[in-house]
Amino acid sequence: MKTNYAELYKPLYHGSNVSFLVIDLSKSAQKKDFGQGFYTTTDKIQAEKFARLKAKRMKTKKGYVEVFYLNNPDDLLVKKFDSAKEEWFDFILIIEDTANLLPIQ
């Protein structure tokens, strides 16, 4: 029986101007809010908008949205913010000060 991951786990979307099969962090931009990394969202529409924006910026014909499912989502440490308020802003400032000093794993 085939596993239906969409029923088990919430999908994560990544919008880009290129399609790919393997995540390569060396191709990630270094100056992001949380440092160099691979950014995803649970909002498919947001990923589609970013894919179109990225394609326009890079002057490519179209954008792509890749879908991912985590193997072990219960193993993640998650910091959730209900809105972009003072706690979120403070967190961003701390991460921006340290993120680019950390090596990519």
Task: Provide structural commentary.
With 105 residues, this protein is of the alpha+beta class. It has one domain. Strands 1-2 form a two-stranded antiparallel sheet. The model has no long low-confidence stretch (mean pLDDT 81).
Key attributes of the depicted protein:
single chain, 105 residues, alpha+beta, two-stranded antiparallel ribbon, 10% strand
Topology, element by element:
Layout: H1 5-8, E1 12-16, H2 44-58, E2 64-68, H3 86-98
Antiparallel strand pairs: 1-2
The total count of strands amounts to: 2
Most strands sheet:
2 strands, antiparallel
Tell me the strand order in the biggest sheet. 1-2
Structural class: alpha+beta
Question: Helix content range of the residues, please?
Answer: 25-40%
Note the total helix count.
3
Residue fraction in strands:
5-15%
Number of domains: 1
Mean pLDDT level: 81
Indicate the low-confidence ranges by residue numbers. none
Q: How many angstroms does the end-to-end distance come to? A: 34 Å
SSE string: HEHEH
Shape: globular
CA radius of gyration is 15 Å
Concise summary:
This protein is an alpha+beta fold and about 100 residues long. The chain has one domain. Helices cover about 30% and strands about 10% of the residues.
